Amino acid sequence: MLTCQSVNLEKLSTHGAWLSSRPTVALVFVLSLFCLGGPYTQIATAPLDPVLATPAQDEALYTHGILRMASGEDWLTPRFLGRPLLVKPPLLQWLSAASVKLLGIQVKLLGIHLWALRLPSILAAAAILTIIYHACGPVGWILLISSHLWRSRAGLVLMDDLLTLFYLIAILQFVRDPRLNPRWAGYVVGAAVGLAIMTKWFAGVLPLALFLWARPPLRRWIEAAAAILVVALPWHLYQFKVNHDWFLAEYLGVELLGYAFSAPVQASSDSQLGYYLPRLAWLLPLAIPLAARRWNSAWLIWCGVLLASIFAYSYRNTTYLAPLAPALLLCHRGWIHWAFAPLALSALLSYPAPQPQLPINNDFAGREVLHLDPDDQLRTSLLPGATVRYIFMIEHLPPNGPLDFEKLGIARSVDGFLQNPGPEVDAILAKDLDQLRRLIEASPQRDFILSEKAWFALAILPPHEVMLGPKVILRSRSPQPGPRPNAFP
After folding, report:
1. What are the domain boundaries of the chain?
2. How far apart, in whole angstroms, are the C-alpha atoms of residue 210 and residue 221?
3. Could you state, in chain order, the average pLDDT of each consecutive group of 10 residues for the chain (489 residues)?
4. 36 contact partners, CB below 8 Å, separation of at least 6
5. What pLDDT sits at residue 326?
6. Which of 46, 50, 78, 202 is the most exposed place for a label (fewest CB within 10 A)?
7. Distance from C-alpha of 364 to C-alpha of 471, rounded to nearest angstrom
8. Sequence-ordered list of residues with C-beta below 8 angstroms from that of 98, at least 6 positions apart, any chain
9. Are 362 and 399 in contact (CB under 8 A)?
């Protein structure tokens, strides 16, 4: 039983030189590659939220753009279903598309083709684990890898691993010397922040808050600013010039102003506190070692910055807590004592299992697919060789901030779609079941994916082959490829 003398536990955390040797650290990095939870789940199925069991939100969205890049489309402007996707900068997409293009065929022959797609995130997550091992020892590594909230999404096609790695690189410079006196320290911080911006937009600027705490010389501010501009400015200037209206509307109007200050409809109606407190409880085992009372002030300040930004941001997402997990461990000064290793048993607590989904395969190649009210996190958009559109049971689509998809022609009513099913149409709006019936009966050349509830409510005899299962598939007897088939394999 721990007593007040536990404040000296770190002094007992002595270790042999071999545990911190370079070969051992390299071995830890390799081991970390294969201990992550994310790489072994199908796209957009890994449960990221322990309360709502939400699957990997946005993974299919980013994967779609990555596969379009890897198939030879525009690398500078990410796209989804033919339209620009300027929700975030494209650094993750660039790295993953390069990995798919270079390694996809070889890795697929080994039966683990998802690794080629997720390799940048896998390497970043393994690097984070290695940093934790080097700073906090084996117990720190065990605690992080056993944390479901961190491990379940580590290595997925999401931006959190790259973002966290760049965060750690920047904050480590302040840990070494808050004044950033070492040569090139200002440039390193700036480059890391620039890469973080190119990964997840304005979330990347958070490490700059430590400049206000550390107050380094003015020349370090200038060096950091110069490095940020060199890394992040060119792509932003390109989009401002080439996709000016879309850049202002989505990248600035929706992502920056809309989500930060007035979030759209969300999965949970809880307040910020009510939403995050139950999820922060899953990170409690990582904070308990701080009972040893030897804290690193730079990492504590950083944890405060992360928490303040998470609670201040209007949109709520469990993945926002990912950078906090390693930061909590790094607050502990020195290697964490083995007495805290049993905290890893918290991993035995129940956690949602991945939800089964329709497989992503070639069954819809050369066909046009209309998916009603998708609940699969846009996995359908990854069907190779298919033209995919989505049906929503709504009369009008509320404008997404300054983006009015109906005015842009991206969303159309059933009548408008039947009159002009152009390649720019992603969403079809059916205000009631009668319009949905009309759409199905007037589209014998198209496939449909429906929920069982919608299928039985329709009560029609369509001109399609009906396939019952977890989803009801209306398969065309005379299919056509549609105007915009996915080019990726």
Report:
1. 4-348, 362-476
2. 11
3. 38 58 92 87 89 87 94 92 92 95 66 81 97 95 94 94 98 95 94 98 96 96 98 98 93 82 71 92 92 85 96 91 96 90 83 82 95 91 95 89 88 96 95 96 97 93 92 95 89
4. 122, 125, 126, 145, 151, 154, 155
5. 97
6. 202
7. 14
8. none
9. no
> For residue 284, what are the contacts with CB-CB under 8 A and spacing of at least 6?
346
State the SS3 of the chain.
CCCHHHHHHHHHCCCCHHHHCHHHHHHHHHHHHCCCCHHHCCCCCCCCCCCCCCCCCCHHHHHHHHHHHHCCCCCCCCEECCEECCCCCCHHHHHHHHHHHHHHHHHHHCCCCHHHHHHHHHHHHHHHHHHHHHHHHHHHHHHHHCCHHHHCCCCCCCCHHHHHHHHHHHHHHHHHCCCCCCCCHHHHHHHHHHHHHHHHHHHHHHHHHHHHHHCCCHHHHHHHHHHHHHHHHHHHHHHHHHCHHHHHHHHHHHHHHHHHHCCCCCCCCCCHHHHHHHHHHHHHHHHHHHHHCCECHHHHHHHHHHHHHHHHCCCCCHHHHCCHHHHHHHCECCCCCHHHHHHHHHHHCCCCCCCCCCCCCHHHCCCEEEEECCCCCCHHHHCCCCEEEEEECCCCCCCECCECCCCCCCEEEHHHHHHCCCCCCCEEECCCHHHHHHHHHCCCCCEEEECHHHHHHHCCCCCEEEECCCCEEEEECCCCCCCCCCCCC
Residue 321 structure tokens: 């807590």
Identify whether the C-beta of residue 322 lies closer than 8 Å to the C-beta of residue 283: no
State how beta strands 387-392 and 411-413 pair.
Answer: unpaired
Task: Give the full edge-to-edge strand order of the sheet including 464-467.
Answer: 411-413, 427-429, 387-392, 368-372, 447-450, 472-476, 464-467
Alpha carbon of 287 to those of 144, 321, 405: distances in Å? 11, 13, 45
What are the residues whose beta carbons fall under 8 Å from the beta carbon of 24, sequence distance 6 or more?
18
pLDDT at 292: 76
> Is 164:206 a contact under the CB 8 Å cutoff?
no
Number of residues that this document lists for the chain: 489
